[in-house]
Amino acid sequence: MTDTDPVAPSLDDFARLARRAFDALPEPFRAAAGEVVIRVDDFPDDETLAAFGMEDPFELTGLYQGHPIGDRDAMGPAREPSRVFLYRRPILDEWCERGDVGLYEIIAHVLIHEIGHHLGLDDDDIDAIEGAD
Fold it and tell me: Which regions form coiled coils (predicted)?
């Protein structure tokens, strides 16, 4: 994939960009993220959209699914691994509509936002941190 390719980046291309964005995070942030699984899908599934009261699959660019680190019970039963979902088509749509930021930057932004949820931050906390840059 290059910036001049006329073909939309594939799921694998997105996964590579997400990995690059994750690897670029400061070490303490990466370490705190632990073993979170990063998954790239074209769209959220119908069940996910319904859970958020959404009908348009382009409304959701990413999702954290799991129990935030601070809410975990070390002695409790094993849980499913925490996951960050990046939704390729809505991210591509946002990238095309905006036209003022690179695809990598949007992927990194969505990834960081969802990892923030993994760390127990809410949207206001994440917005405040991003606004401090």
Answer: none
Token output for 110 = 């969505």
Query: What b-and-e string marks burial along 100-120, b requiring 16 or more CB atoms within 10 Å of the CB?
Result: eeebeebbbbbbbbbbbbbbe
Angle CA(42)–CA(35)–CA(75) in degrees, nearest 5?
Answer: 125
| CATH class of the region 17-66+81-131 | alpha beta
**pLDDT digits (tens), the chain, 133 positions:** 555 556 789 999 999 999 999 999 888 888 888 888 999 999 999 999 999 999 999 999 999 998 776 665 555 655 678 899 999 999 999 999 998 999 999 999 999 999 988 888 888 888 887 776 5
Bridge partners of 37, per DSSP, are 83
pTM for this prediction: 0.84
- The tokens describing 29, both together, are 């942030």
